[in-house]
Inverse folding.
C-alpha cells in the first residue's frame, strides 16, 4: 500500500478532491478522484463515487499554508434544477481549457454549517478556503467551473463576492418545463421539492408574502413552483447586482442547440471555445444522469409524456404561479440571455 502523499502534494494536486468540511475540527476531508472518473458520474457525491472509508483529513490552516498562488480562474454555473445543467457542466470540461465540478459536497457542507448557526465571519473565511481548494485545475492555466447544487443558491452572492474576478451563468428551466419534470419524476421528486423549500425558508430565501401555514395547504406542484419562483427572484437580484459578470440561459435554448449554447457559455466565461471540440464531446451522446446512450429529442418526448399525464394540473399551477410572480414583481423569463430564444 502506497504512503499518503504530503499535505503540500495533496493540496497542489487537483486529483485530490476537497470533499467535506468538518467544522468541529476545522478540517477538510480529501478523496482521490481522477479526472476520468469524474467524467463518468453526474455528481461528485458519495452516492455516485462510492463511500470513501479512509479520507485524508487535513487541518484547514495546513491547507492554506500549502496552497499555490496565483489560483486558476474560477467561475460558477448556478441553476434551479431540471434544466440540463449537468450536461452543460460536462460540455465545459475540456482538458487544458477548463475542468468542471458538478455539485461538490464541500459546498453543501457550507450550506449545512450556515444553517446550524455558523458565525458569519468564520463562515466567510472557511468559504474562501473552500473555493480555493475547489478552484484547482489539472493543468497550468486551466480554469475551474463549479456547478453547485441548487441548495447553494442562497450563498451565490457571497461566493461571487469572495471571487470578484469570477463570472457566472444562471441556468433555469421555464416554469412549465420545470413542473413537467417534477411531475414525471414522481413522488420522491415531489418530496425533494418540499425539502428544498424547507431549506430555503430556513435560509430566509423566500419572500413571496406567504405565511408558514400556507405551505401546508399547497399541492406538491404548488410547492415546487414556490421553490422555482424563489430562485427566479434571487437570480433577478443577482443580475441587478453584477450585470457585467452574469449571463442567463434557459434549458430549452440549451437543449435545442447545445453546441451553440456551450460555446456562448465559454465565451462569457473567458474560455477558449472550439466548436469542433464541443460537437464531438461525449456528453452530447449520453444521458447526463444515467450515462446511457442519449437519443435526439429524448428530453422533449419525456416532457410531452408528462404533459399528457399532468397537463391539466400543471396548467392550473402555472396560472396560479403567474399571479404570485406578478404580485412579487418576478419575471418568468430572465434577461441577459447568452443566446436569443
Amino acid at each position: 500500500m502506497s504512503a499518503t502523499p504530503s499535505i503540500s502534494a495533496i493540496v497542489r494536486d487537483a486529483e485530490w478532491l476537497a470533499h467535506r468540511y468538518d467544522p468541529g475540527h476545522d478540517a477538510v476531508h480529501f478523496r482521490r478522484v481522477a479526472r476520468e472518473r469524474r467524467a463518468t458520474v453526474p455528481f461528485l457525491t458519495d452516492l455516485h463515487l462510492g463511500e470513501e472509508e479512509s479520507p485524508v483529513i487535513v487541518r484547514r490552516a495546513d491547507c492554506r499554508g500549502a496552497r499555490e498562488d496565483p489560483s486558476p480562474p474560477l467561475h460558477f454555473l448556478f441553476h434551479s434544477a431540471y434544466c440540463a445543467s449537468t450536461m452543460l457542466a460536462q460540455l465545459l470540461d475540456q482538458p487544458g481549457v477548463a475542468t468542471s465540478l458538478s455539485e461538490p459536497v464541500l459546498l453543501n457542507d457550507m450550506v449545512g454549517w450556515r444553517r446550524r448557526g455558523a458565525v458569519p465571519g468564520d463562515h466567510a473565511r472557511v468559504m474562501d478556503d473552500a473555493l480555493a481548494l475547489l478552484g484547482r485545475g489539472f493543468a497550468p492555466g486551466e480554469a475551474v467551473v463549479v456547478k453547485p447544487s441548487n441548495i447553494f443558491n442562497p450563498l451565490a452572492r457571497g461566493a461571487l463576492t469572495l471571487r470578484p474576478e469570477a463570472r457566472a451563468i444562471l441556468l433555469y428551466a421555464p416554469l412549465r418545463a420545470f413542473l413537467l419534470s417534477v411531475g414525471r419524476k414522481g413522488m420522491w421528486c415531489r418530496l425533494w421539492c418540499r425539502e428544498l423549500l424547507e431549506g430555503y425558508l430556513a435560509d430566509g430565501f423566500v419572500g413571496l408574502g406567504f405565511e408558514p401555514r400556507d405551505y401546508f395547504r399547497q399541492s406538491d406542484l404548488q410547492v415546487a413552483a414556490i421553490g422555482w419562483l424563489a430562485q427566479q427572484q434571487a437570480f433577478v437580484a443577482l443580475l441587478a447586482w453584477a450585470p457585467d459578470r452574469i449571463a442567463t440561459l434557459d434549458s430549452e435554448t440549451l437543449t435545442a442547440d447545445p453546441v451553440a449554447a456551450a460555446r456562448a457559455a465559454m465565451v462569457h466565461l473567458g474560455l477558449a471555445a472550439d466548436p469542433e471540440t464541443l460537437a464531438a464531446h461525449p456528453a452530447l451522446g449520453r444521458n447526463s444522469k444515467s450515462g446511457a446512450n442519449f437519443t435526439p429529442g429524448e428530453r422533449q418526448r419525456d416532457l410531452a409524456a408528462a404533459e399528457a399525464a399532468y397537463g391539466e394540473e400543471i396548467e392550473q399551477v402555472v396560472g396560479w404561479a403567474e399571479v404570485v410572480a406578478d404580485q412579487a414583481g418576478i419575471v418568468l423569463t430572465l434577461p441577459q440571455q447568452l443566446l436569443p430564444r
User: Anything to note?
Assistant: The two ends are 55 Å apart (CA to CA).
